[in-house]
């Protein structure tokens, strides 16, 4: 769970949203949660498993980045 | 026969004195370098022994020339090769353990440390060589005068080389201050400067709010930002900081392009702000990133 300074680019490991319409084609795993609680829990579980950081976007969606 | 024995005895005293002086020079510089040192006591012993070898080579050179054994002087060239090998090995060793550190040292810092280790062997060689030369030149009627002259010569050379090769630290070019960090939603700010938004989870925000420490490093002169904001230098600062206070969870580093400052935020294991400031201040300025002639001047001191 660290921000490595020497790391210049990050990879989006997962995108967790509540809006089904926002899920488009892409490289990362896209998960559509039913409730905000489920969305947060998904983020937490994925971030813990992958030892990654979580970014919350202003639209309310979450990205797990590593 | 007796004359020959006396001559040999004089050479032995000369060689032994020079070796002791050269090895002592290495020993003294090893103490200074302890913070950068990768391992203790085995790495310490290794460098002390290579210092001894360097001092021996410096000691033998003059007696070898006097006894017309000119071939022996070629050992000096061999010594230089050997010192380069020390640099290479040190670099490889530090690179190999870089992955297991909380924060990597980075290639620039590793290169700087390796160069320093190579240079320190020349200390031993030059101190031993200079004391050997002086002991050859000074009359030997009074043995103690001869030995004392050698010691003085070695000490003077050591002082000058050490002064010449002395690097500057971050505290020479920057002011270091602890600042308040603020967490707004999933964004982290220090002095209203955005640092990171990698704190999307509530737990991350709580940990940073309660235990996070933010340090702002501001250059004393405008042009010092080139050094401070160099990636290699920043990485070295972050490494030293994390190494001394430990990293419990997060560490972030951010360059502020408006003021030229460098911002470090981390959740330390040892929450000691003054220790963090001291550690950052003592981080050496890397030779490879020095861009200002002002700090190349050995007489340059912190303002």
The proportion of strand residues of chain A reads 25-35%
Largest sheet of chain B: 4 strands, antiparallel
Structural class of chain A: alpha+beta
SS-derived structural category of chain B = alpha+beta
Label this structure with key terms.
heterodimer; A: 66 residues; alpha+beta; 1 helix; globular; B: 303 residues; four-stranded antiparallel beta sheet; elongated
Description:
The complex is a heterodimer of chains A (66) and B (303). Chain A has 66 residues and is an alpha+beta fold. Chain A contains 1 helix and 4 strands, in the order ββαββ. Chain A has a 4-stranded mixed β-sheet with strand order 2-1-4-3, with helices on one face. Chain B has 11 helices and 7 strands. In chain B, the strands form 2 sheets. In chain B, strands 1-5-7-6 form a 4-stranded antiparallel β-sheet, with helices on both faces. In chain B, a hairpin with a 2-residue loop joins strand 3 and strand 4. In chain B, helix 1 packs parallel to helix 5, helix 2 packs antiparallel against helix 3 and helix 9 packs antiparallel against helix 10. The longest helix of chain B has 31 residues. Chain B is elongated and about 80 Å long. The model of chain B has no long low-confidence stretch (mean pLDDT 86). Classes of the chains: A alpha+beta (66), B alpha+beta (303). The interface between A and B is medium-sized, with 17 and 25 residues.
């Amino acid at each position: 769970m660290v921000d490595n300074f020497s790391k210049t680019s990050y990879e989006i490991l997962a995108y967790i949203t509540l809006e089904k319409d926002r899920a488009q084609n892409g490289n990362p795993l896209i998960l559509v949660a039913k409730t905000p609680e489920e969305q947060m829990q998904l983020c937490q579980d994925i971030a813990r498993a992958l030892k990654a950081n979580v970014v919350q976007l202003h639209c309310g969606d979450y990205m797990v980045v590593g | 026969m007796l004359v020959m024995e006396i001559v040999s005895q004089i050479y032995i005293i000369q060689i032994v004195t020079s070796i002791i002086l050269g090895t002592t020079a290495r020993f003294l510089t090893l103490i200074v370098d302890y913070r950068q040192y990768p391992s203790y006591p085995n790495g310490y012993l290794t460098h002390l022994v290579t210092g001894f070898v360097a001092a021996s080579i410096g000691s033998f050179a003059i007696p070898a020339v006097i006894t017309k054994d000119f071939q022996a002087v070629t050992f000096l060239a061999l010594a230089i090769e050997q010192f380069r090998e020390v640099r290479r090995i040190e670099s490889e060793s530090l690179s190999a353990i870089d992955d297991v550190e909380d924060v990597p040292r980075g290639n620039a810092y590793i290169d700087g440390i390796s160069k320093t280790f190579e240079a320190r062997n020349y200390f031993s060689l030059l101190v031993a060589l200079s004391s050997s030369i002086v002991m050859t030149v000074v009359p030997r009627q009074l043995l103690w005068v001869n030995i004392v002259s050698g010691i003085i010569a070695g000490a003077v050379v050591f002082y000058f080389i050490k002064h010449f090769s002395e690097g500057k630290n971050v505290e020479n070019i920057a002011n270091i201050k602890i600042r308040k960090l603020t967490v707004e939603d999933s964004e982290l700010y220090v002095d209203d400067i955005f640092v990171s938004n990698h704190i999307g989870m509530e737990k991350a925000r709580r940990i940073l709010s309660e235990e996070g420490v933010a340090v702002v490093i501001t250059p004393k002169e405008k042009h010092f930002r080139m050094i401070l904001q160099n990636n290699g230098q920043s990485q070295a600062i972050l490494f030293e900081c994390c190494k001394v206070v430990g990293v419990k969870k997060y560490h972030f580093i951010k360059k502020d392009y408006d003021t030229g400052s460098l911002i470090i935020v981390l959740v330390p294991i040892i929450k000691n702000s003054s220790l963090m400031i001291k550690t950052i201040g003592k981080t050496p300025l890397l030779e490879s990133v020095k861009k200002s002639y002002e700090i190349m001047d050995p007489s340059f001191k912190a303002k």
